Fold these 2 entries.
Entry 1:
Amino acid sequence: MIEGDVKTIIERFEGDEGFSGKAVLVTGGAGFLGSWLCDVLIELGARVYCVDNFASGRWENISHLASEENFVFIEHDVSKPLEIKEKLDFIFHFASRASPFEFEHYPLEIIDANTLGTRNMLELARKNDARFIFASTSEIYGQPDVVPTPETYWGYVNPIGIRSCYDESKRLGETITMAYHRQYGVDVRIVRIFNTYGPRMRADGVYGRVVPRFISQALNREPITVFGDGSQTRSFCYVTDLITGVLKFAVLENGNGEVVNLGNPREVSILELAHIIKKLTNSDSPIEFHPLPPDDPPRRCPDISKAQKLLNWKPKVELEEGLKKTIEWYKGEI
Ligand code: UDP
């Protein structure tokens, strides 16, 4: 299934020559999005340096690439400086824990990956004259009062809240990225990624985000745990759509210094999501209500008009279709 999806990304990307023969570093390369990037880049003929410290990434996500001549794995924590012998052309900085449960347990590691890690990878980009793509997040908007949220919205963030280790460090990551752009002229691009789901997303323990948690609960006939009354919303983008957008942005001629939202603009409530997953899995799991975690954003939905115009991109995979694929993949895992 993943091979088929990689082909779909390549067909939609239409920019093969952009990465062929190029040296590309992917931090967080053993993670959910990072491993998809590695797969596609190898297929496009790039030489891929995959960096991960397995904080939340998994070897299983990339083990199939280990035998590829053009794939180099480096176990490394991005909060420490990194040197690569070959001259790099692109750096995708995607290393960070991203699950709200992890925010509680690993706030300092998250801050380090997004601040020190971003600076270290920008330093590497500066030395190599490489293009730098920073994986930012919809979390930088906090609890926005403008929804769908455009890139011009500055954010409404609780700086001392439980989520601040992620929100604020990604915000500072964006700031450091723009500082390297302004002070050293590094070619940078910031992508604000909204909720994304698909194969390889972890369902276990503190790593589990809502989609894999609901799918594994439904498949195991355990109660589906809705936090709060489930009226909070998210907008879920299937991984192939997201990766296509990231690659289009990375090779865009006039993308230097730009920031772009990438995500699916269909907004659904979490209770609605629970019902959709229950139906698609034919599950008789009961829906169980639990307390809403502090500072959980009540609404999240991207305004993607900038990405549509700049990249000629919009998501193509309907939620039900993406969930069906994801469910099939988890059936093989569980
Ligand atoms: N959520 C839920 N039950 C769960 C896990 C998450 O109701 O078992 C809710 C969570 O409170 C949030 C939404 O689902 O409102 C999305 O959570 P996720 O962990 O995927 O990440 P977030 O979008 O909050 O960063």
Entry 2:
Amino acid sequence: MAQGTFKSSIGTFAAVAGSVVGLGNIWRFPYLAGENGGFAFLIVYLFVSLLVSLPVMLSEFSIGRSQRCNAMRSFKQISGGPWFLTGMLGVATAYVIDSFYMVVGGWSLEFLRKSVMNEFSGISPERMTEEFNAYIADGTGPVIWALVSLALATTIIILGVSKGIEKMNKIMMPTLVLILVILVINSIFFLPNSQAGIDFLLHPDFSKITFKTLLAAVGQSFFSLSLGMGAMLTYASYIQEKEHLPSTALRVMIFDSSIALLSGLAIFPAVFSFGIDPSSGPHLLFLTMPNIFQQIIGGQFLSIIFFLFVFLAAITSQVSLLEVVTAFVSEELKIKRWKAAIWLLLTMGITGSMCALSQSDMDIFVFNGHSLFDIFDYVSSNYMLPIGGLLIVIFAGRIMPERILQSQLTNGNEKNTLGYTVIKFLIRYVSPIFISLMFLDLIGLIK
Ligand code: PFF
């Protein structure tokens, strides 16, 4: 019941890059960097990505490519004990994240539609906020668009690993980069007073760097690199033997950080040149940006490509989340890939709709004052991802036979190369310690 393989190196890179580049890069990174010392944060971020996250990615890559099956079964095949539960946790996490991620994917589609129809034109900022709130409160639109977003992801999944996932990413990722370059050029060169935004993002302020900043950087890097829930593991099970995993991982990491930085350079100059305060996440993407676009020449075009950009980033990540669950359902229930995908369209359609409705004014799927959307978001990033990531590195570094790790990371080279020795040290010591500290910080045990 194998799902297939990625046919080319460039396709492999595009697919993995498609998973990692997502909403985490567009909104969360620029905001965190701006608030936490700008360029200084970027340096810390790159540092922890290399020392903490990259080892997790290489662990997932090694487990996945050596076993060539879904996350749960990969653990089970390597070790008979309860370790398969780590894979199960990954599948559950992917399900949970995808349920709210598809809602945001849906918002970007609605905003793309509005941009194409030029519906933002001539609307005051107050009216824009009212309309956005009314749209969320009504619930119908968000549910429909979330389902459209899920249906698109399902279609790509059904087309298959190579003809669907690989091909789609080979088209979508270059498009995404091209759009981002246009947006950055426009923001830096054509907006008045763009320097303030550039300064906000790039001014290095090392006084802001504390232990907590370091831990925030670990959390961000984890989410941004799609780690801790079997997405990289599942994609790795489609990577050919000839690919060199450490260099793929390094290239992906550099690409992911570059997109995050460029997103900041596209967004913040625009925000500052219109004297807007960099406020909270979804608001900046979905309220502030349309506002800015309608005040500038060529705004409708920029608005269309901006929301296309957000949508591309969201859908390519969504597909990777869906693939984790599809591979699991298809292989474990021994049903065809397309049947598994249709089952998930139905079940995830329900949980996704519940997430969308939990934010409406119907007051359903709200528990103790928290919407299901927020609960899923909170529980997955604060508990499921760090626990999953920690278990994965412990498994790869201490439970899995070392020959698997070594042959996967050196492409069968028997000699202990320096690079391999360094990676093994990071996997066994540095990464687990940092992730543990991050988890203690997230649950409030580090003051
Ligand atoms: N890396 C994605 C982002 O930065 O938005 C989020 C994500 C996608 C997390 C896929 C996990 C995953 F499996």
